[in-house]
Amino acid sequence: MVFFQVISSGIVAFTAGLFSFFILTSGKTDKLGRSFSINSLYVAAWAAPLVFWHLAADGGSALFLIQTSIVFSLLIPAGFFSFTIYFVESVTHVDYGKYRKAVYAIGIFFALLLVSDMLGLTSLMLPSVSHKWWFPYWPDAGPMFKYALVYFFGAFNAGFYLLFQLIRRSQDRILKGQLKAVLIGVIIAMLGGSTNYFLWYNVAIPPFGTILATIYVISMFYAIARYQLFNIKVITAQLVTFTIWSFIFFRVLFSDTTQEFVANASLLLLVIFFGMFLIKGVLNEVKRKEQLQVITAELKNLTDHLQEKVDEQTKEIRRSYEVEKKARVELEDLSTAKDQFILAAQSSLISPLKSIEKRVKELKDLSLPGEAVEDVLKIADSTERLNDLVDEFVSISQIRIGKDALKTERINLPSIVRGIFDELTPQITKANLQTSLTFPPLEKDNVLNLDKEKLKEALTNLIDNAVKYNQAGGSITIKGERTRHPIERDKEIYRLTIE
How much is the pTM? Predict the structure, then answer.
């Protein structure tokens, strides 16, 4: 039975250390991974002293080893509860941090009580060992240890409750199956490990369940591996590396000579060094592949939806074009109707005006009294003004229908501008404005084909506004220059700036 306990404890310690090593070297640095690693280390630190405890030669050594083991065993329930909290939080996003801290505080409290026993200050948790059944040095429970057992089973049951509630609420079949496997595995492992405590209270039940504690670590590793999808290459590299390390480590322990010990120890350090590089290289390769998979998935998603987006934008452009085309057609129809109306109005107005002019001319040739002559002249002036308005009206209509309504001639542009300034001199002097006129020095550069009257009308409006809306004591700057067309660079234009 003692041999079975040694083997069982060794397997538990090796397994827990191995899986903790897997997570620590896998690149997973989130809270769930760290929680599993720490809890696995608690299990390994609990099981490792048990191997040497059963091989102890005296009661003092056995007591120290079992006390060291139980210190870490008291942290295992808090570690499991913490792992459960992080697992539940990752799924539900509900914060259980205060409960995790409370359970850890209780576990640390009992662990410190046991450390006090180890220092000889108290005898509350594990004060002594005695011969029980096949075991020469089995622990005797102190008065406070029963409360530690309440904490032990209470923390585990609280974790079981949270996992059970998560199973009930989850709609994910894979997650539910995963949680069930974890729940069953940890319960079996906890019950198996708890068989160690019967003999503490002289209950004749052998501690045959120690080896079942291995299931505890395996179940939790299964959960985190499935949940975080660890790469099989990483696990394989870790397993091979750790196996080689273990083999060489045992060779160091069982070296027969100093020379063999030094050689094996040197080989172990060398293998550890290259093993870490191997694991790091595999991790980098896996990371690059994961990044490539993400990029590939994004590109595939973009490719799959690119044609849809192009079709959608094309439809939108087509709809906008149809709306614009319809509006343009309607505007052209309206413009045509307006031009037709102007031309029709022109014809309707010209005929009566011609008749009036003819009659007024006939009246001028007659000998009329003085008052009648004055009235006829007034009618003639009004008719002439009306005729000018009709001519202007006709000019506009001709422009709208594309006819040449401009009477162009070669004129000197600066002379027109200076003439306008001369007409506005009283207003400029009254406002105390400074004027500046700048034109190309060569006269030929200022001679253009223009409609003199229409250009003068347009420039008069602009310059008059510059005078009227300027501030007292301000300035007016006019600059003329020949330059390249801003878009059609092979063409030359004349730019006139009024500032």
Answer: 0.49
Does pLDDT of 229 surpass 60?
no
Chain centre distance of CA 310: 25
The DSSP string of 181-234 is: HHHHHHHHHHHHHHGGGTGGGT-----TTGGGHHHHHHHHHHHHHHHHT--HHH
User: Average pLDDT over the chain, rounded to whole?
Assistant: 80
Query: How many whole angstroms from its chain centre is CA 325?
Result: 41
If you write DSSP's letter for every residue of 51-96 in order, what string do you get? Answer: HHHTT-SSHHHHHHHHHHHHHHHTTHHHHHHHHHHHHHHHHH----
**pLDDT value for 22:** 67
Point out which residues pair with 438 in neighbouring strands: 479
Mean pLDDT of 122-145: 89
Structure tokens at 248: 């060489």
CB neighbour class for 258 (10 Å; exposed up to 12, middle 13-18, buried from 19): exposed
Dist CA 465 CA 459 (whole Å): 10
Give the pairing type, strands 128-132 and 135-140.
antiparallel
Instruction: Find, among 181, 172, 184, the residue nearest to 91 by Cα.
Output: 172
Beta bridge mates, 494: 482
- The confidence band for 295, taking pLDDT boundaries of 50, 70 and 90, is confident
Which amino acid is located at 438 in the chain?
A: T
Q: How far is CA 218 from CA 182, 342, 464, in A?
A: 9, 96, 94
Angle (CA) 421 424 427, round 5°: 130
Buried b (16+ CB within 10 A) or exposed e, 208-242: ebbbbbbbbbbbbbbbbbebeebbeebbebbeebb
Residue 68 · residue 52 · CB < 8 Å: no
Top pLDDT among 164 and 302 is at 164
pLDDT of res. 388? 76
Rounded to an integer, what distance in angstroms lies between the CA atom of residue 163 and that of residue 169? 10
**Residue 115 corresponds to which tokens in the numbers above?**
């450390």
Tokens of 360: 């007024």
HSE-CB of 432 using CA atoms within 13 angstroms: 3
pLDDT score, position 283: 64
Residue type for position 142: G
Handedness of CA 349, 350, 352, 353 (dihedral sign): positive
pLDDT of 395 reads 66
Using an 8 Å Cβ cutoff, are 110 and 144 in contact? yes
State the pLDDT confidence band at 158, using cuts at 50, 70 and 90. very high
For residues 335-357, give the mean pLDDT.
Answer: 72
